[in-house]
Amino acid sequence: MALMQFWSSLLILGTVVFAWKYLEIRKARNALHNIAGPPPASFLKGSISQFFSRDSTDFQRRLAFDYAPIAKLYSMFGRPMLYVSDPKALYTIMIKDEPSFPEPDSFISTNHLIFGRGLVATLGETHRKQRKLLNPAFSINHMRHIIPIFYNVAHKLRNGLMKQIVGGTEEVDLLEWMSRAALELIGQGGLGYSFDPLVEDTHNEYGDALRALFPNLVKIPIMRLMTPYLIRLGPAAFRRFVLKFVPDGGVQSLRYIADTMDSQSRAIFEKKKAALLQGEEAVLQQVGEGKDIISILIRANASTSEVDRLPEDQIIAQMSTLVFAATDTTSNTLARILQILAEFPDVQEKLRAEVIDAHAGESLTYDELDQLPLLDGVCRETLRLNPPGVFISRVANRDTILPLAEPIIGVDGSLISEIPVVKGTEVIIGILGCNARKDLWGEDAHEWKPERWLAPLPEKVTKNTIPGVYANLMTFIGGKRACIGFKFSEMEMKVVLSVLLTNFTFELTDKPIVWNAAAVRYPTVGRMDNKPQMPLKVRLYEGAKV
Ligand code: HEM
Ligand SMILES: *[C@@H]1O[C@H](CO)[C@@H](O)[C@H](O)[C@H]1NC(C)=O
Ligand SMILES: *[C@@H]1O[C@H](CO)[C@@H](O)[C@H](O)[C@H]1NC(C)=O
Questions:
Q1: What is the pLDDT of residues 386-435, one digit of tens each?
Q2: CB neighbour class for 456 (10 Å; exposed up to 12, middle 13-18, buried from 19)
Q3: Residue whose CA is closest, atom 26 of ligand 1?
Q4: What is the reported pTM?
Q5: Strand-by-strand arrangement of the 70-74 sheet
Q6: What would you measure as the largest C-alpha separation in the chain, in angstroms?
Q7: Which residues of 381-403 are buried (b: 16+ CB within 10 A; e: fewer)?
């Protein structure tokens, strides 16, 4: 009897949830019925596999360029999503109405489980407090202090590469070297910790754990959607205990990775704290001489007002968060720049002349390095056309409206100047779309032309308030959750490029390089191979031939 009651209650509950979801989806569909977009592959799975798989590059480009700045696509069970690259709509999402468009629950809670409560795992007031304490460590003033650390690492990278090309010219996987360099740069500049001497093959437990994180995350797509519920399963120690019994290789690897990152971060943190307690002498003897972000945070925490202080756990969580956010993004961008310079030997030569003339390969100050025009143009143009992440997601947490910079034409032919968005609708920030639309950037918008940054930008770009923190681009997005490390990344790239171009030239091999769609895009040789790599011919440069 009791069992019958149980099943019938469950049936009623199921029906109610189903009906509620159905009404929700119908409301969202009605609101967006007039918006055009590519047809979904199926009702059940919508456009998810077209949009989110390794081969999605073409689909993502079509979505960015072949539709109006607002396009509709579908997630599961016919639920519509919006792809947005209109500047005014983006401004509304990122800045004006930012509280209505938080990151998806599954994003926040997956990050929480992996990194702890760092920047990418918090919302609202906690996030604001963390940013406030972290901001000074990413200020231009601080960049001025850490440029010598960057040069130090870049020179080790150069020496490491030298040993690879004993014959004067050699094919080298530059992605691997850029990954090692990016990890070491955030290690020394961010944590005051050295992961990798950049000499030969070395292994570091923390570094290995970080590298294994992404490949293991993509193995458990369903688990990731369940994280908002997992996180409510009681305290961390209990969740860890439960996870031990999940019979899944991916989950077990992730548990090991998260534990390793946490214990390694904790050990580094304790060392920094001890050095600060011992006084200036001990601080100066560490890697980075106490100029790293973590030492700054510990000092800032001690001197800020009581309400703005952060518990130790949140500072420790920032460490893996920063390292993770800093490495693949920067290393893949560097690999992309080197590939493009190999494709455009004339630009490579001009850029080499610029950096050698300025002695940028030895050691410049922040301001000197930042002012090299072609170096700046090459970085900007590559980040414009090849943002490592071509989109990110937000979810409307209430019914609201997105006004458009310019009206679009609806499916029925009428003009639309604002779009109603129903609570629960996923909104995709069209980073690539906004960076490279012809109606904003001009007819040559899809071409790689670093010179465009040496002249005034088109008025359409500058007069629209594109809400990007960097160069009217959405690559690092904007607003409260913009990339905190964009200057850090830009300067890393400028130092590494200056040093490498001073002593090497880069040429293409005949291997076909393919860029694969992912949260951070990565290159492989051909479509079938799984190993991320960027083979290029590296040749010693020994001065201009006379
Ligand atoms: C080319 C290099 C990089 C690109 C394109 C990039 C891009 C981005 C983007 C698009 C976001 C927003 C993600 C979201 O809201 O879902 C972000 C956030 C973040 N980035 Fe970067 N990033 C780069 C390098 C770096 C570096 C070098 C660091 C650290 C030194 C860093 C640290 C962070 C952090 C901590 C966040 C989270 C900020 C917050 O939520 O408050 N990034 N980045
Ligand atoms: C920040 O200060 C608070 C209050 O003094 C202290 O409890 C906390 O441990 C400090 N956090 C760090 C990371 O030093
Ligand atoms: C790199 O190039 C500079 C400038 O041409 C030169 O002075 C230096 O010796 C080179 N470095 C190495 C390690 O060959």
A1: 999 999 999 999 999 999 999 999 999 999 999 999 999 999 999 999 99
A2: exposed
A3: 326
A4: 0.93
A5: 70-74, 80-84, 426-430, 391-395
A6: 97
A7: bbbbbbbbbbbbebbbeeebebe
Distances (CA, A) of 546 to 348, 542, 543: 19, 11, 9
Q: What DSSP line would sit under 10-79, residue for residue? A: HHHHHHHHHHHHHHHHHHHHHHTTT---PPPSBTTTBTHHHHHSTTTHHHHHHHHHTS-SEEEEE-GGG-
pLDDT of 6: 82
The pLDDT assigned to 516 comes to 93
Q: How far is the centre of ligand 3, averaged over its atoms, from the C-alpha of 273 (Å)?
A: 39
Angstrom distance (rounded) from CA 499 to CA 517: 30
| Domains along the sequence of the chain with CATH | 104-425+446-540 (1.10.630.10)
For residues 363 and 354, give the distance between their C-alpha atoms in angstroms, rounded to a whole number.
Answer: 14
C-beta atoms surrounding 413 within 10 Å: 7
Confirm if 402 and 32 have CB atoms less than 8 A apart: no
Q: Summarize pLDDT for 341-397 with one digit per residue, the tens.
A: 999 999 999 999 999 999 999 999 999 999 999 999 999 999 999 999 999 999 999
Give me the pLDDT at residue 544, please: 63
| Gyration radius of the chain over CA positions | 24
Q: Dihedrals φ, ψ of 114, to 5°?
A: -90, -45
Residue owning tokens 């005949």: 510
Q: Which residues are near ligand 2 (CB < 6 Å)? A: 298, 301, 309-312, 315
Place of tokens 């991320």: 532
**DSSP 8-state secondary structure symbol assigned to residue 126:** H
- What CA–CA distance (Å, rounded) separates 112 from 246? 19
Atom of ligand 3 nearest to the CA of 502: 2
Among the residue ranges 22-31, 219-228, 480-489, the one predicted with the least confidence is: 219-228
Most confidently predicted of 29-33, 188-192, 283-287, 344-348 = 344-348
Residue 68 gets the label, from left (phi > 0), alpha (psi -120 to 50) or beta, of beta
Half-sphere exposure at residue 184, Cβ-oriented, CA atoms within 13 angstroms = 23
pLDDT on residue 1 = 62
Q: CA-CA distances (angstroms) from residue 355 to 181, 216, 238, 249?
A: 20, 40, 55, 48
Residue 2 has a CB neighbour count (10 Å cut-off) of 5
Local structure of 523: helix, strand or coil: strand
Residue with tokens 């947005």: 84
For ligand 1, residues with CB inside 6 Å are 103, 119-120, 131, 186, 190, 321-322, 325-326, 329-330, 333, 387-389, 392, 475-477, 481, 483-485, 488-489
CA distance 101 to 91: 11
Contact (CB, 8 A) for 322 and 485: yes
Most confident of 130-139, 168-177, 186-195, 444-453: 444-453
Query: 130-168 burial by CB neighbour count: b if 16+ within 10 A, else e?
Result: bbebbeebbeeebbeebbebbbbbbbbbbebbeeebeee
